[in-house]
Structure formats: C-alpha cells, structure tokens
Specification:
The chain is mainly alpha-helical. Helix content is 63%, strand content 1%. Strands 1-2 form a two-stranded antiparallel ribbon. Helix 2 packs across helix 3. The chain is globular, with a radius of gyration of 23 Å. The N terminus and C terminus are likely disordered.
C-alpha cells in the first residue's frame, strides 16, 4: 500500500498560517470552540440557576424526542464494531503493513482504560447500582429483582455499547491519519461522506470546533465529579473541610499532574500515569474482594454478567415507550438543589424542593452532595 507523504505540519494542522501567538493551532477551530466554552462559563458563573434549568430542559427534550434515535445509533455502533473486528477489515494494520505497536498490550490497555473510564467508574461504579436499586425503571424498589436489575443496568451502561462508540472514534482518527495521511482531527473521518473540499472548509471547521468543545466539557464534568469525591473523602478521613477553596486547590493539583504528564510525552508521562492509576484501581478491587463478601461478589458478578449478555437486545432497545413522563401540569415548579450537603438516606436542607415527590430521597448515594435523579424530575 502506497502511503501518502504529508509533512507533520500538514498532518497536524500546524502550518504557519494556523499559528496563534506562536502556538500551532487552527485559528478558526480554536476561536470558535473557545467562544462557545467562554460563553457557557460566563452564563454558568453569572446565572447558575438559569444555566441549570436550561441544561435540564435541553437534556429532557433530547431524551423525550430523540432517545429512540440515540439508542438506535448506539446499537448500530455496536454492530459496526463487531463487523469490523470479525470481518476481513479486522486484519487491516493501522499505520501500514510494516508498522508495529509502539507500546505493549499492558501499556495500551492502561491508557485506554484510564481515558475511557477514569474517575467516572469510581464514582458511578457504586452510585449507579444503588440508584437503580432504590429507584428502578420498572418493578418494585429495593427488592431482590431490583438488585439483580441494578447490576445489569450498570453493566449495560459501562459495557459493549459504550466501548464500541469509543473504539469507532479512535479507529476513525487512527485510520485516516496514519493510513491515509489526513490531519489527526475528527473532520478527517467525514472525508468519504462530505468530500475533501467541504471537510477542509467551514463545515470541517465546525465539526472540529464542536468536537473540541464537547471534549472539554466532558473532561470538566469528570474533573468536577472527581474533585468533589476526593474532597469528601478527605473530609471524612482527615477532617479537611469540604469547600470551594479546597476544591480549587485539588483542581490545580490534578491539572498540574495532567499537564506534566502531557508535556513529558505519551511514553513517559501518560503511559506511566495510566499504569499507576490502573494499579491503584486493582489494589482497590483487591481490597474490596479480600475484606468484603468475597463469595457473594464473585457469584453476583458471574450471574449479572450472564444476565447482561442475555438481555443486551432488550436493554439496548428499551425506550420507556409505555411508561411516558407525566404531563406538564404534574411537573415540579423548580429543580432540586445541587448544593453540597447530605448523605445517603439523610438529605441536607438543600434537598427540599416544594412539591417534589419523595424529596427526602433526593440525596443520592454520593457522600457530600445532593441531587435529584432523573426519575424524580416529575412530581405528583
């Protein structure tokens, strides 16, 4: 296969015409994404309540009117990923026929796992099953069946569907960059659909700007969850106060470590940090297995895995079509507060939305925070 011979400047969009204050960036993409993010930050800081209400309204509209499309797309991603793995395309080597992996399987797995799950797994690995156990989408709450379904739901959310989407995005980036010599950007994956001319124009700039903004927002959410979780753990273990100052310091520390990791390169920084994170995660799993109900954990894990694999088609197409939301007259007049405070089963005074059904259960399984689960967004 003849490989294109594009320079690094062309491949990564670092040509001189794309420099911004000496930094090699694509100005149109950077400025557009930065403007969107800056606008969201300003609105979130100045009018946080309206920002929350608007975000909840958008999320609710997407779930109500396009939930079916989202599920259909996720199933299509899974089918496509399996096809690419087991068909003749699975033998295509990224980078060309003579390329070999730069890192070991352990190194690649560590980086993929750290990037794909990260702190979200530590947070939702406990919160999500307990949330489904206390507020199941169907069946009786806090029953034996609710416990079984809670683990299956969690397996589904963290299982094949999500990883197929991650895999296809990574595959498209790698293939079009290292096999086709195109820039290492999201827009390159749209070249066969839109054509080279459109991809290199305003449409491509919009695609990359949207991807950049979405990526930063996703990282910010993960960082926010992780910082709050760390702060709460430090408060319980070492009486370190849980406040904004401590959380800002944690954000600065985590950002510094991440920055050093990126500046030292993929091999020395990111790979080593990912291996260290996976090692600590393995030690945590071992700790729970040894000191917890070991036999029950293995039994529940095996049974839930079998149930998940057996129910993939039904779970992957469940849209709550016959369990529609209540009409607007039955909706609560204000959102539940997300102010810090409260604990599982003991919500703080912040969890007191007037008229909200079961407001006392607004406290989720997250120590030190209070929020309303999606199932509590309607009140009767």
């Amino acid at each position: 296969m003849d490989m294109p011979t594009h320079s690094d400047a062309d491949r990564y969009g670092s040509a001189k015409r794309h420099n911004l204050l000496g930094v090699p960036v694509h100005r149109a993409v950077f400025l557009t994404a930065a403007a969107v993010i800056l606008l969201l930050v300003i609105v979130g800081v100045t009018v946080p309540d309206r920002m929350q209400q608007g975000a909840e309204a958008v999320q609710e509209a997407i779930a109500d009117y396009f939930g079916w499309f989202y599920l259909l797309a996720m199933n299509a991603f899974l089918v496509l990923a399996l096809y690419l793995i087991f068909s003749r395309y699975g033998s295509v080597r990224l980078g060309g026929e003579d390329e070999r992996p730069e890192f070991s399987n352990w190194g690649w797995f560590s980086m993929l796992f750290a990037a794909g799950t990260g702190v979200g797994l530590l947070f939702y690995g406990v919160a999500e099953p307990l949330s489904f156990f206390s507020e199941p989408p169907f069946g009786e709450a806090e029953s034996e069946q609710a416990a079984r379904d809670a683990l299956v739901h969690s397996y589904f959310h963290w299982g094949l569907h999500g990883w197929s989407m991650y895999g296809l995005v990574g595959l498209s980036l790698c293939y079009f960059c290292f096999n086709r010599g195109l820039p290492l950007t999201i827009r390159s994956a749209f070249t066969p659909l839109l054509g080279r001319k459109r991809v290199e124009g305003p449409i491509g700039n919009g695609i990359d700007a949207l991807a950049a903004a979405g990526t930063l927002i996703g990282v910010a959410v993960s960082l926010g969850l992780g910082v709050r979780q760390i702060n709460t753990g430090l408060e319980h273990a070492y009486d370190i106060p849980s406040n904004l100052g401590v959380q800002i310091a944690l954000i600065a520390g985590i950002t510094s470590v991440a920055l050093i990791s990126v500046l030292t390169g993929l091999a020395k920084g990111i790979q080593r940090l990912s291996k260290l994170a996976l090692l600590f995660g393995a030690l945590l799993v071992l700790y729970v297995l040894v000191l917890g109900p070991t036999a029950f954990i293995f039994n529940a894990m095996l049974e839930s895995l079998g149930s998940y694999l057996n129910q993939i088609p039904s779970r992957g197409t469940y849209t709550e079509a016959f369990n529609p939301p209540m009409p607007s007259a039955g909706r609560m007049t204000g959102p539940c507060s997300t102010s810090p405070g409260g604990s599982p089963g003991r919500p703080s005074s912040a969890c007191s939305s007037p008229g909200c059904r079961a407001a006392a259960r607004c406290a989720n399984t997250c120590w030190g925070c209070c929020w309303c689960r999606p199932s509590l967004r309607y009140c009767g």
